[in-house]
């Protein structure tokens, strides 16, 4: 009974933390189902941002004055919170970036030194463009070859094919933990050791998983893991790259500038230690602090309770939506997060998105920056509803009614 | 009828609707009456790159007037382009070049005019005008 009480969320109280949820859109109360694109920000995080600029805005690390000290402590405190959240062995294995795209580019750029002609990089068939293009660019620079781990009709990676693709030529395996277009949770706890057996490093894009799943980078033994704060209730423009210490030491710096140096003369520059080697220039100080506040907020609710409630919403919505005529779901993996990607026969996703917006419902329509996934299913795009712990079954009821109303207009 | 007269007529038609639903229902109806582009013209050359829906437009001169045909895979987009074509088709290229498009705003479709909206309406208008410029050069 005690356990039950612990995992029950008080949604009405939680919703009060998110001022934006009181908004009206086109005269209707907002229903926000675009959480996989960006999550909303609780007032605890907004207050942190206001507090930073109101009380202790200063440049960090170098200043000896009080404000600089406070800002440095808070920023490095944010890094420690992130370290604990992902259970990294060291705080300096957490590199602040502008987000997952930046994190991936940082690694892809660094790997120019480690791959060459004929080497292979394996990428999954369900990647976001940001986990495809940087690797294509790396291949162009180095002559390495990009190979694709295929998926099946349910949107699940074909592990036998993955095994066949692995060889001593494989230098890197990259895949997302959770697909943004389909919600599939990929079996990274199998993917990672298989790659390590052939001596390949693994980068996992955690943009879609980190708000929903408990991630332990040490247990996973993953080499690189990425996250974006704005998908886990923090602000935009800040994210992180986790890298194993030995990899981050080997990887050359990405950008040159202040903060990342030990000593500069015109003859030679030596680089700073981790993590600063990768953090050139004045960083997003407020962002780093607010990222930490977002993690505090997530921890106060608890990932386990979040996961349980979001799955309840997913099951409820899947059942409700399956009653709509012509409903076609994409991504039928048994293991998935609270994302429903779908089309309705005879309806273009753009038309549906436009009419839903008129009814105050925010969903994402289109290719979700994953065109290869859309090509696989031979569709122009999907309608994607992605749920968060502040969403309710009542909102799903409104969504289902709105879908039916729009369907009747469009078919 | 001149372009401003047609635009005024469209604005009057849309002013009869009280809510968004009726407006969109009417647009969907208009979409169904769009003068369709010939299948042979549905090529990459005729496509207007919008982010989410495909739009094909073709133009040809009939005498000194420009005639547009089009199609889209999304019905609301079809409705929007039908409204544009109704205003611009069978008009002289010079008049098309000089026409403004404020009427889109007046009929309550302002949100579609935002250059950041991923439906390519701004690109559509630009493409119709580009056709007019090209044919005007030919007429000169």
From TrEMBL, chain B:
Protein name, as recorded: SufE family protein
Membrane spanning stretches: none
Occurrences of domain Fe-S metabolism associated (ranges): 11-129
InterPro entries for the chain: Fe-S_metab-assoc_dom (IPR003808)
Protein family: Belongs to the SufE family.
Pfam families on file: SufE
